[in-house]
Structures are given as structure tokens and as C-alpha cells.
Amino acid sequence: MSIAGGRLITALRSRRGLGIFASHFSAAFATLAGCFQLIVAAHPSSPLKGIWPIVAMVAASLIWAGARSIPRTLVSREFTHPNFTVTVKSGDLFSEDSDLVIGFTDTYDTSTEGGDIVSPESVQAQFLRKVYGGNLLELDDALSEALRGVAISRVETQEDKPRGKRERYPVDTVAVLSKETARYYCVAYSHMSNDLIARSSVNDLWRSLSNTWSAISRHGHLNAVAIPILGSDLARVSNLGRESLLKMILLSFVAKSREGLISRKLTLVIHHRDARQVDMNEVRAFMNSL
Length: 290
Description:
This protein is an alpha/beta fold. It is about 40% helix and about 20% strand.
């Protein structure tokens, strides 16, 4: 069995996959049936009669629906005026040959010890391991240098926040870090409560994305940029699903790009474990509507 066939069978085992297949089948069959009726009306003596034309339409509709329902792992669109490309794919953010956007909280906490401040499985923890080799002091020094000159909005007391960092920066702050040949845009899009729970909102994320694109425009030299689905893990944004968050990120980037070119290429990377929660056919349709 082909890889595409295997992906189709897997998709059809879910209720959502069956619904997508049924929708494509209905649309295809209705279109073919309409064409058939027009041909018969225009040519009453046409040989297209009996059961075989119906069988052919059903077969063609099944093939079309199957092809349209195969789960995609990558969708892309090229935009003009200005010229840039947006790609959505499943994969590993840190394997992308591009600058990266990394989500943080307003305290820029970095410690993964114990897992209650920063989850060891988070993108932020991977950033510490894969880019800074687990050197927490080096990362903290780089963040402090990048945040020099940014007004601190509040300083928590040790009594109020016993663990983690206590200096708070405005939500939507972007710290720009450079490591070797890449830049990393560390955006504070959520608030870290004193009980170590990250919280965000649609408004916080939208403002943070806008500031991120502005920072990339200033520092990025039109380099390729990759971004994960911000707000999809511990800092859930108003209970929005991954697909809704993904669309929000795409809309924000395209809207900002209409004001001025930010990057020649944006790649939005979906972690492999989350790929089934995103309908790539729906994402493709959304991208084509922008």
C-alpha cells in the first residue's frame, strides 16, 4: 500500500476524516450529476443512459474525494505585492534553516528544573538544550543583554513569588538574541502568575505577534523565519485549538506584511504529535483566502 493510501485510511478512521471525505464526495457527485443532466437535456439521443454512467460518476467521485481527503503534511502559498512565501508543515522547529520565534512569559523564566516553571517538553526548553547546549547561565545572560533598556513593569517580592524570576516585562516584549548565524525572537506573549501558571489571551497574542513581526522587520534582513504554534501548550489562549491559533498567526503575518515586507519566507511548524489536530486541507483553503 502507498504512503498516501495509508494516510487516507488513517484519516477515514476518525469521524472528522469521514466527514471531510463525505463532503468532497457529495460535491464531486453533485457536479458530475449536474453536467450529466445538461448533456442529456441538450442531446436526448445521447448514449449516456442506463446504470453505467451512474457507476462511472460514483467511481470518479470516490477517487476525487479520496485524493482530496488525504492528510497533507505541508501546504504553501506564494504571495505578491510584496513577494513572500508562507509554508505550514509538520516537523521539528529546530531543524529549520532559518531564524526562529520562541515563546516566553513576561518574567522570561528559563529554568526547567522540576518542570514546574518551564516544562522540559516545551519549545522554550528545547531552545535551551538545542541552541544553548543546556547552559542556563549563558541563556539568562543573553536575555538580560537583549532586554537592557526595556522598562521593567513590575518586580515581585520573594514572598509573593518564591521560585523563578521576579522581574516582569510588558507582555508583547521581544528580546532579540543572536547565536552563531541565526537570530532568535524571544517574545513574551503570556503572563506568569506567582503560582507558576502561564496565562495569555487573544489580545495578548495578537499584540505580541505584531511586535514580533516589527522586530523581525528591523533585525531580520528579510531572512527566512520559522515559528511554532504559540499558545497551544501550557499558556492556552482562550481555549483556542491549534488550528485556530495557526490561522491567527497566519492572518497576523500576512496583514503585517501588507504594510511592508517582513521576511521572504515564513514557515509555521506544527510538532509531529499535534499534526492530527490540524486539518491541512482547511489550512490550505484559509491561506488561499488571504
